[in-house]
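Look over this one:
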Amino acid sequence: MPDIKIIPVNGIRTFISFCKLPRVLYKDMEGFAPSLDVERWTLYSHHLNPHFKLVEAQEFLAELNGKYVGRVEAHVYKSDINPVDVSRHQFGTLDAIDDVNVVSALMSAAENWLRVRGASTLYGPFSPSINGECGVLIDGFHATPMIFMPWHPPYLSRHLEELGYTKAKDL
């Protein structure tokens, strides 16, 4: 088992790395179009995005051999907020290299963080909320990118399924 370190995002340096990681991981993959950095900073900032007033959240980075190789975000809605037909405990912003061990380590970090906060079921990926990018791309990897449509390499959905995650619905 490789020595994968999971690092909580807790400062400006790890926050910027978290925001730009897809640009680093997927830069040479056909079909990938990076988001604008400033848009990602606004989307994931707990101070700038009003979504984070509704949730308690924690972002994580995976490090392998001194390089960041994945990320995930976990959040739980405050007790007075009950999303319709889904758990209050959710994950999103999942990106990683083609290594099921990295995806497993990231999802374990999110699951453990959410379990401490009462989770028995997780929903996602919502990045960072259902009002943003939802789901995992499973087809159309070479299509022209669209706003609010996530882009993931083909292996990511396979790794999630290998870890026991199942599709709730097609989007």
